[in-house]
Amino acid sequence: MSILYAIKKKPRGLPVIPWLVVPLLGLFFLVYPVQVVLGGSPTRAEALFALGGAGLFAAVFLWLMWSNEPVRLSSAGRAGEFRVRAAIAFLAVLAGVMSYALGQEWRMLFFYHINVAAGIMLPKRDAYVTIAAITILTLVAGAFTGFWWLAAPALALGLWSTTFVGQVATVAQLRAAREELARLAVSEERLRFARDLHDLLGHSLSLITLKSELAGRLLPDTPANERVANELRDLEGVARGALKEVREAVSGYRRLSLDEELAGACAMLEAAGISCRARKEIETLPGDTEGILTWAVREGATNVVRHSRAKGCEIRLIQDGDLIRAEVKDDGHGPSGAGSGTGGNGLAGLAERVRASGGHFEAGPLPGGGFRLRADLPLRRGVREKDGERVPARANRRAREEGGEA
User: Fold this and answer.
1) Residue 319's beta-bridge partner residues?
2) Which stretches in the chain have pLDDT values below 50?
């Protein structure tokens, strides 16, 4: 693996210099036990075993540190966590075998390499357990060789690596929070601009329309005033058209954007330490449908962060025949009472909007574990079925207006 390739594939959030220097420093510490073996007139088998074992250890160590993300910064989910744990376990077993076969000098692989790898790559609790075990092992082994004092630097090195990743994770969370605040500030500014546009320009155009209509009515109906009446009618038409355009512009500014909400939901989940996979396979949608789907994504992501204690979440926006489906699924347990219909006001309000639009809503735990929120909306709506009768979906307008005000 080249240095340029390693930099290109660097796990997100880790500073470049420490991320490169720490593994390279590990290669420097690996030279000492190899030199001890080769300098002691070893057999050919011992020399090959020392060189081959050291090379394999170095390759796995560099692969672990340069091609994987720390679990606390990772979005790869359980597969990535298992890969990290398996690599560290392999390094520990290999170091133990080489220490037993070639001498106590190889115990320093625990002192630095496994200590640092565990502190950086593992979750905080597991990292502390591994560091404590290495410290105790160093202390016990040092009691027989006179190097018991190495337990103190081993503990310090492990705690430093754990603290380093904790600081990186904190910075990443602060950066994600800052981006989310910036996004919310832009959304708030758009809403403020829409309100001002509606209140000021909309009011003025409404007044112009009313005055021109009133002037046309008060104008005496004479041949001499016919041209003036036509001009007033044209003025009224222009004012009404401008008022309609202003209202459409305001609706566009206030409408919830599905793409923006999906990106914001993923950012929020990642900032909370929950890996997120998003899939969107739908394009242009009616404004009311997009508003309800956006609300479903927002409510689903919020529930995952607040209640689920999940490690992974999947958001899907797909078209299934004549239905548009929004699905938010996680591997946690979801909000209490959601499966029995006694969930929070957010789920209840979302269920009302979906059903008022002629769709189907469900939220509850999955049989194999996890929680799922799903909203199905018809692609074309004007009427909906109820008790075998076709009735107008009057609540559709209300749901759309509430979605625009949110």
Assistant:
1) 324
2) 1-8, 338-343, 381-406
What is the rounded distance in angstroms from the CA atom of residue 362 to the CA atom of residue 296? 11
Q: Provide the residue type at 76 as one letter.
A: A
Q: How far apart are CA 265 and CA 256, in angstroms?
A: 13
pLDDT of 259: 80
**Alpha-carbon dihedral of residues 273, 347, 278, 72, nearest 10 degrees?**
10
Reduced to 3 states (helix: H, G, I; strand: E, B; else coil), residue 40 is coil
- In 3D space, the residue among 336, 181, 206, 346 whose CA is nearest the CA of residue 268 turns out to be 181
Name residues whose C-beta falls within 8 Å of residue 52's C-beta, 6 or more positions apart in sequence: none
The tens digit of pLDDT for each residue in 108-129 reads: 788 888 888 888 888 888 889 9
Q: What is the pLDDT of residue 382?
A: 40
With CA atoms as reference, report the closest residue to 116 among 168, 77, 68, 61. Answer: 61
Residue 390 to residue 160: CA distance in whole angstroms: 68
Is residue 404 exposed (0-12), middle (13-18) or buried (19+ Cβ within 10 Å)?
Answer: middle
> How far apart are the C-alpha atoms of 223 and 363, rounded to whole Å?
70
Instruction: Compute the distance between CA of residue 370 and CA of residue 330 in angstroms, rounded to an integer.
Output: 5
CB 171 within 8 A of CB 128: no
Which pair of tokens denotes residue 201?
A: 């320009």
pLDDT at 206: 78
Q: How many other CB atoms are found less than 10 A from the CB of residue 1?
A: 11
What DSSP letter does each residue of 239-263 carry, written as one string?
Answer: HHHHHHHHHHHHHHHHSPPHHHHHH
Q: What is the pLDDT of residues 7-19, one digit of tens each?
A: 445 555 566 666 6
Beta strands in 113-269 (DSSP E): none
Query: For 11, phi and psi rounded to 5 degrees?
Result: -60, 140
- Using an 8 Å Cβ cutoff, are 228 and 212 in contact? no
How far apart (Å, rounded) are the C-alpha atoms in residues 120 and 22? 10
Q: What's residue 15's pLDDT?
A: 65
**Nearest residue to 73 via CA among 138, 168, 140, 158:** 168
